[in-house]
Specification:
Elements (H helix, E strand, L loop, with lengths): L1 E6 L4 E8 L3 E9 L1 H4 L7 H22 L9 E7 L3 H18 L3 E5 H7 L12 E6 L4 E8 L2 E7 L5 H11 L6 H9 L24 H13 L6 H27 L3 E5 L6 H14 L2 E3 L3 H4 L4 H12 L24
Parallel strand pairs: 1-4, 4-5, 6-9, 9-10
Antiparallel strand pairs: 1-2, 2-3, 6-7, 7-8
Bound molecules: 5'-O-[(R)-(carboxyoxy)(hydroxy)phosphoryl]adenosine and zinc ion (ZN).
Length: about 325
């Protein structure tokens, strides 16, 4: 079965082809970073327009790389949410129309599920069940992944997502969009002992997160210490607080579920300090740890093609109506048994 995957939920246009027996055959990714950079964040209308411009050429390039044509496809997977409404509609519209014209099934993929399954594309993939930490620009969740479509939400952020907090602190520090990687780069030059920031929600039991208080405390620190030489130290203190908080919560969740495997996904999983801290933690606790490669931490078409392939294998597909859901939660994902 050959499945074309289409990702257009935010500011990356991603296309990939996944095939039974061969795995990932070809992929293309176009990032809109340069387009949104002057505005300091994603401008939804510009994102939709750019997806319209780029999607068809990227599909053609993916098929050319894979040396196949549209007629060779057996199914099409597209991100249907969560994400930006207009951006989602571009991918869904193209995917749905192609599937109709080719008379093949199309399946709506949940973007969070795609992030959770992305680590399964690695060489030594984890097996079900595993604990997943999903840390992206829009979400911060601890999920017990029992099987395809069986996702138990153990904890989530009560306010800002961790990537969102990175981006807002980075903006205040005068760093370019996207803030997360820029902040991490600046933090590498900082002294971790210069400032100390709180580790939110770690004193209370439970697996939920809250990053808005930490964000505010960091913004106040930036205002109080506006000298340029302090910026790296503040960035480092913020990063240390985030990383330690995430490690503490992972440790609790591992104990709660007696888990032996931890998977970390989403854009913030590309953060090197988080990766190192979780590696140290996994060694201490003798659990296995799996990260997608950095290119599959952030948004991409490969994870959508792969997730769609799993669903199509099970006979899941959607009818001809064009439906997207900007707030589609993991708990609403349905799988045929
Ligand atoms: O998963 P993703 O590409 O998009 C969403 O689904 O949200 O995640 C994007 C988020 C952004 O907030 C970005 O700043 C953050 O991931 N990010 C990072 C790093 N690379 C990306 N945050 C911290 N350190 C990084 N190296
Ligand atoms: Zn994402």
């Amino acid at each position: 079965m050959r499945v074309l995957g289409i990702e257009t939920s935010c500011d990356e246009t991603g296309v990939a082809l996944y095939e039974t027996g061969r795995g990932l055959v070809a992929e293309q990714l176009y990032s809109q970073i340069a387009l949104h950079a002057p505005y300091g964040g994603v401008v939804p209308e510009l994102a939709s327009r750019d997806h319209i411009r780029k999607l068809t050429p990227l599909i053609q390039a993916t098929l050319a790389d894979a040396k196949c044509s549209l007629a060779d496809l057996d199914g099409i997977a597209y991100t249907a949410g969560p994400g930006l409404l207009g951006a989602l509609l571009v991918g869904a519209g193209v995917a749905r129309s192609l599937a109709y014209a080719l008379n093949i099934p199309a399946v709506a993929v949940n973007h969070l599920e795609a992030h959770l399954l992305a680590p399964l594309l690695e060489e030594n993939p984890p097996c079900f069940p595993f604990l997943a930490l999903l840390v992206s620009g829009g979400h911060t969740q601890l999920v017990w992944v029992q099987d395809l479509g069986q996702y138990e939400l153990l904890g989530e952020t009560e306010d800002d997502a961790v990537g969102e907090a990175f981006d807002k602190v980075a903006k205040k520090l005068g760093l370019p969009y996207p803030g997360g990687p820029a902040l991490a780069k600046l933090a590498a030059e900082g002294d971790p002992t210069r400032f100390y920031l709180p580790r939110p929600m770690t004193q209370k039991p439970g697996l939920d997160f809250s990053f808005s208080g930490l964000k505010t405390a960091t913004l106040q620190l930036i205002t109080a210490h506006h000298q340029a030489e302090q910026r790296a130290h503040i960035a480092r203190a913020f990063e240390e607080a985030v990383v330690e908080t995430l490690v503490i919560k992972c440790q609790r969740a591992i104990q709660t579920k007696a888990a032996t495997q931890l998977v970390v996904a989403g854009g913030v999983a590309a953060n090197q300090r988080l990766r190192q801290a979780l590696k140290d933690f996994a060694t201490r606790e003798s659990i296995s740890l799996c990260f997608p490669k950095p290119a599959y931490c952030t948004d991409n078409g490969a994870m959508v093609a792969f997730t769609g392939w799993h669903h199509l294998q099970k006979g899941n597909h959607n009818d001809l109506t064009l439906q997207v859901n900007p707030r589609w939660s993991l708990g609403e994902v349905r799988v045929r048994n």
